[in-house]
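User: For a benchmark we're assembling, each entry needs the component sequences followed by a predicted structure for the full assembly. Here are entry 17's components. Please fill in the structure.
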Amino acid sequence: MATRSLNVNGKRVSITIDDPEMPLLYALRDNLALRGPRFGCGLAQCGACTVHVDGKAVRSCALPLSSIETAQRVVTLEGLGTPQRLHPLQKAFIEEQAAQCGYCINGMIMESAAFLVANKRPTAAQVKQALANNLCRCGTHVRIVRAVLRAANT
Amino acid sequence: MNRQFRPSRRNVITGSGALFVSFSLVSPASEAAAPAAVGTKPLALTEVDSFLAIDAKGTCTIYSGKVDLGTGVATALRQIAADELDLPLGRVDLVQGDTLLTPDQGKTWGSITIQIGGMQIRQACAAAKHALFDEAARQLAINKEDLKAADGAISGGGKRLTYPELIGGKRFSIKLDPKEPVSTKDPKDFKVVGQSVPRLDIPAKVTGTFTYMQDFRVPGMLHGRVVRPPAVGATLQSVDEGSITNIRTAKVVRQNDFLAVVAENEWAAIKAARQLKATWSKWEGLPEQAKLYEYVRGTKIAKEEVTSTVGNTAEAMAKEGVNTLKATYEFAIHTHGSIGPSCAVAEFKDGKLTSWSASQATHDLRKQLAEMFSMLLADIRCIYLEGSGCYGRNGHEDAAGDAALLAKLTGKPVRVQWSRQDEHGWDPKGPPTLVDVRGALDDAGNVSAWQSEFFIPQATAGSWLIPLVGAKLAGLPQKPDLAPGNIFQNSAIPYKFPNIKTVCQRLETTPFRPSWIRTPGRMQNTYANECFVDELAAAAGADPIDFRLKYIDAADKRGIEVLDRLAKLCKWEKRPSPQRVLTGDVVRGRGASYVKYELYRTYVGAVAEVEVDRATGVISIPRFYVAHDCGQIINPDGLKNQIEGSVIQTISRTLIEELKFDRSAVTSLDWQSYPILTFPQVPEVVIDLIDRPTMPPWGAGEPAAAVVPSAIANAVFDATGVRLRSIPYTPEKVKAAIRAT
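Assistant: Structure for entry 17:
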């Protein structure tokens, strides 16, 4: 067992791990009890586990802890905003009622948040392209696109 | 009346030495005021107290056997209760799917949660309100007719009594008789029903504060991972326990062919499951995929079920001068495709089992667990926690069986999380469907006969339980039933032809453990029916919507109105199919479809607009129109959300999805080998909701899925003049069909 230091949601945290190759997702969910990032495939195919590392959207299910520098900033859905202080995307997802089961929504918001930083006024087609590798099974896509466009315009 | 409930932040119920923890839907209201039941709470469908309780603070808790599978019914059910009881929505709480607390209202399937479950709750609330009025009239010495209810209180003659003052914390002890329903609120007085109330679960879901099944933990629990056989029917010959000794805390757990690993942390369990060396027997009992439909056609027929018969089709077809048409339609084997693989937690304590899962039928799951472990029902409690959307019976129940078995074998609470490969490989599947349809047109272009045969697996009589994978592998008691759901539905048709015969050829077996995937049978059967109606319309040179209207019973005004509104919605241009502009690679068309769900409820009409690239075979769908009548609408925006979802998911099924397998097992084990629709392929969905506040609410969700495949097929024909009859419509199949004409 070894101790590992991480910067998560603006805080320095220390976790005890057996395997430095453990994907970040399990550190976030199991060691730090965060619920935003979700396990969907473990293959970086669906996007449910998306978090930000230094502002970039990454698939935490396939990102070994060993590849993250101690100083790198990991941000999860919880770090983006809280029920009391919603991020504009979280607010827009509520306003557009852009969820059904909601299992994929973490990925939709995290991917879009990173996308909007570099694309302040995207078109619907650009949003769809940005989310092309995020899967939703309930079929909430049209609302998700509307929510991202709404957030971009606020 | 007994004191029955006390408020508590978290339901902690102590009984028979076992600590039970239950959660209601996570929302500010429920976090603050979820009541806890002490002792035995009534569960019978004939008792008001089974469905609701009003606590001393005036919060009403609704106990629902039907659960929210991500569809928003947790909000809609509360709307129904709040309106019937004249309570603010914020003072209605909900406990769902807990065998200790909620009545057995049957499985959450078939789009009947509002239609049946919600109406049982409405009845219970109405009966409760009548009792509150009686009590208020007695206490205030005022006639019931002179009293009014609002905001959780009854007033009259200048006096006011709150519900807690009238009943708070006590039982109603009133019987419900489904044969003699009590009077309910006049729909014109609805305040909450019919409103697009924002869903109560969404704020938590977008902020990472919602507790999904996959988030649930109990102290001291182990993480389990199953190791499934590499072939469906393989047996386990040997396990090399030494192959995982380098992984701290990881242990092999085995019973017969049930193989799993447990560890103190999740990653260790995952690594151990991957690393474990085991030897399995060879098994190649699956049919050859390339010859799947030949296999289906060759499967022994266990039973012939005639689902409708009018006149004499054989005579009508044999008549001289009739134009007979025939077609065969195929619908591939599909998976549910939940984004979050199934997960469950189980704990044995003092001989009692508690199971947490995302089961759509906790009361049924309890029966299966009782059978599996030869236990009494009373010694098992199954608690529902919302998982990833499941659209039918996916792997949730199987994961619950796995977790219970591992908890039993290890003596510790165990959380089982299926992998992506477990879910794609081992969830029960929507069976392959093969349909032969024949029709006859007389010389005036009128349909004179319709005859269809549906080749679908049989359902074990009286059984609605899909055998649990873990129980089967472990050799534990488990009925070997086939339970594909009511897949005969919508084999009969909503049209008045003079001669009709529709038959389900119930097959003795089917390649994979079958289950109900969203819109089971109704989707596949309506696909064949509505494609063939379109084929007849084209042969008759008729406009496809007019053709349908001609054969809908004139008394069926709601069906007619749905198609009329659909035509207006999409600015339907009256003409026969196909269209004639065949220049360039990309051609455009539109196709219609219609369903009267199960021939007695929800009406849906749909039009797909498609573009077909004849060079690449790619079908794209810029717009999809739906006109929808499910009677009284509880939450219009929630309903739209469900319709959009059904349309998009079923477009995915129509264009892309097909389970892949070799002779041993499923080979499409991830999203690359079993892709689904992605954002760039998603159409605009245009919906016209027909609200009928004074009519009973019917199901929504499933019905819209029924019309999607045929609307697309018919639009492709309209665009290209080519009929596609085998789902999915992959570019290869489209190109081949175009080349063949």
